[in-house]
Structure formats: structure tokens, C-alpha cells
Amino acid sequence: MIKSDDTGKLILRLTLGILILLHGLFKLTGGVGGIGGMLSSHGLPGFLAYGAYVGEILAPILIIVGIYTRLGGLLIAINMVVAILLAHTGQLGSLTNNGGWALELQGMFLFTGLAIAFMGAGRFSLAGNGGRWN
């Protein structure tokens, strides 16, 4: 268990899944009206804001339990690209007062989602190693 790729994949899945799911649960109680407004200001239909529920509730659940894990990782990565384009483009080249990238959290979510999409769930999942999307 100390030198196990599957244990590393489990830790990565649980970390990303839980942290993104917390954002999704907040949106369940607070709604996605703010996202709809941002979409509308960019000339996009506001109903696309409901896609945040896919990227921040459905995808993390898939990743946590380990079914359709690669798809879940890809959905989170897409969700983060949209979030960065809608709300954070002005910060892409910015640093914080502490010298870190202003989009560290968004970047971590994006690239961790991509890593999971490429690596899959590992054997510590409901689907084990089976399936194209796992």
C-alpha cells in the first residue's frame, strides 16, 4: 500500500471530488444566477449556467465513487476552463501579493481534472480498472 499507484489515484480522486463538490453544494443552495448573468454578458444563453451542476455535482460524485472517472475528470476540466474564461481572464497573468499565481486554485482543479481524465480511477473504485471511461 505504501508504493501504490492505485492509492495515489484514490487520494487524488477524493481530494478533487470533495473540493469541487463543496462548490457544487453551495450552488445548490445559492443557485446559478450569477453564472447565468456572466454568460448573458458574453452573449451566451443563461440556461448554460445549469452546466455548473454537471461539472460541480455530477462529475465529482462520479470521481469520488470511481465510475466513469475519466469522463468526470474531463467534465471538471471543461467546467474550470469555462469558469476561467467567464470570471478570471483578467487574472491569467497575475500574481498574488505572496508571489503565487492568482488562479492557483482554478489551475489546480483544471489540471487535476485532466490528470484524472488521463489516469483513470485505479482499482480502488466501484468499477475497479474496468471500462473505457474508468
TrEMBL record:
Keywords attached to this entry: Cell membrane, Membrane, Transmembrane, Transmembrane helix
Key word Glycoprotein present: no
Pfam short name (any one): DoxX
Parts of the chain that traverse the membrane: 12-35, 47-67, 74-93, 105-126
Keyword Transmembrane helix appears in the UniProt entry: yes
InterPro entries to which the protein is assigned, alphabetical: DoxX, DoxX-like_oxidoreductase
Main location class: membrane
Location within or outside the cell: Cell membrane
Membrane topology listed for this record: Multi-pass membrane protein
PANTHER family reported for this sequence: INNER MEMBRANE PROTEIN YPHA-RELATED (PTHR33452:SF1), OXIDOREDUCTASE CATD-RELATED (PTHR33452)
Family, similarity comment: Belongs to the DoxX family.
Protein name as catalogued: DoxX family protein
Organism: Achromobacter veterisilvae
